[in-house]
Q: What sequence folds into this?
């Protein structure tokens, strides 16, 4: 009998560690967050796709339309809470259904085929940071971080804009979604934590990759396996949500860009290429209405010197666009949508009928001696629907049209697509 009791005790003790390990695994899995977002789009463009359409527009007035299928983004988000205030956030992004290298037919000057590399690697690691949560008013984050300048960089999920693609002006002129390796301080404050701030330290942009149509957009990437950090930059964002349904935000950026490259020479020693960005945006949700708007203004010092250097000092193998760069760029955008289904007595799903307008110009101003390209300034209107059969699924349909000054041809198009945004599993 004693032997049997002793054997049972041994077996019980042996079982206890296994049960503890199982509980540990359950506790760890409860800290894991899995989510993501993505879009699949079809667009029919009722205008010419010839690269010469901005050089001799009169020849392409009656060209045939062309269509495109696209997967703009597919993102997997993984988060993990290590405990004691330490957490991990990450996003792995596949753009346009493939890697981050592609061949483009440039419309800027000579119609060259250009191999564009946005960032080294086969996929984009859009976020990968470690955060130490210290207090609601002060936390620290380091790693690959989203730079929250403008509306789109801060709110870029497909349920945060009505149009088929992300807001075109910011997506054309600024890095989007802008992500850099850096350090961030962030937190909330106020009686109801209705103020939120972000302060960031990051590497500067690379002026080698600035361009006529895209201004500073491509300066955030790197064709190398590392990001050059000869010069640095700072960014900030401040949001207030004290008024019910309304969020107001301001954001900005300052950094030098010309020295943040491997290709400089002594002739341009005094060139800095300061980049300054100021932005104000808002989002309103209430009474079956969603409205969003943003105004961005950006200035580039030494744009004439950067233009001259990029056009005259780059080898044919350089990733530089080798064309003129404006000194000032501007974006203004507004959209509003109304959920019409409550009018029909349906509240299980949502269907927003929306209208959208924006104006953007990567050459709003140019320095003396820099050729201005009038077709870079564009007005764009769009209207359509966003139907939510489920909370995380969106069916999008849109008609849009870009308007140009004469003699350039306007560019109408129709876009149909489906998108998702949400958590697959949150244990």
A:
């Amino acid at each position: 009998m004693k032997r049997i009791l002793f054997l049972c005790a041994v077996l019980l003790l042996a079982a206890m560690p296994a049960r503890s390990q199982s509980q540990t695994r359950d506790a760890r899995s409860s800290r894991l967050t899995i989510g993501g977002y993505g879009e699949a789009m079809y667009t029919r463009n009722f205008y010419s796709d010839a690269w010469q359409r901005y050089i001799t527009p009169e020849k392409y007035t009656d060209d045939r339309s062309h269509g495109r299928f696209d997967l703009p983004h597919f993102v997997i988000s993984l988060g993990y809470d290590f405990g004691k205030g330490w957490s991990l956030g990450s996003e792995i992004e596949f753009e346009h259904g493939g890697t981050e290298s592609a061949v483009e037919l440039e419309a800027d000057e000579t119609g060259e085929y250009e191999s564009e590399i946005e960032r080294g690697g086969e996929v984009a690691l859009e976020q990968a940071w470690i955060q130490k949560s210290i207090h609601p008013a002060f936390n620290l984050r380091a790693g690959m971080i989203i730079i929250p300048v403008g509306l789109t960089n801060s709110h870029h999920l497909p349920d945060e804009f009505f149009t088929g693609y992300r807001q075109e002006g910011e997506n054309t002129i600024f890095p989007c979604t802008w992500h850099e390796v850096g350090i961030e301080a962030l937190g909330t404050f106020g009686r109801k934590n209705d103020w939120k701030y972000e302060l960031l330290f990051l590497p500067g942009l690379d002026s080698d990759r600035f361009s006529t149509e895209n201004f500073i957009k491509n300066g955030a990437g790197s064709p190398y396996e590392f990001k050059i950090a000869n010069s640095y930059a700072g960014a900030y964002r401040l949001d207030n949500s004290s008024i019910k349904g309304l969020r107001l935000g301001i954001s900005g950026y300052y950094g030098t860009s010309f020295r943040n490259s491997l290709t400089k020479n002594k002739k341009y020693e005094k060139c800095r290429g300061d980049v300054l960005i100021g932005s104000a945006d808002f989002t309103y949700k209430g009474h079956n209405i969603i409205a969003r708007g943003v105004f961005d203004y950006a200035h580039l010092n030494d744009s004439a010197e950067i233009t001259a250097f990029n056009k005259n000092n780059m080898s044919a193998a350089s990733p530089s666009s080798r064309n003129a760069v404006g000194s000032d760029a501007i974006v203004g955008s507004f959209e509003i949508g109304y959920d019409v289904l409550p009018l029909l007595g349906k509240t299980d799903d949502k269907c927003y009928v929306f209208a959208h307008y924006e104006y953007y110009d990567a050459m709003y101003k140019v320095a003396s001696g820099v050729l201005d390209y009038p077709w870079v300034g564009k007005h764009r209107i769009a209207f359509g629907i966003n139907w939510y059969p489920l909370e995380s699924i969106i069916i999008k349909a849109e008609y849009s049209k870009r308007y140009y000054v004469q003699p350039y041809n306007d560019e109408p198009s129709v876009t149909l697509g489906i998108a998702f945004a949400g958590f697959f599993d949150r244990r």
Notes: The chain has four helices and 19 strands. Residues 2-29 form the longest helix (28 residues).
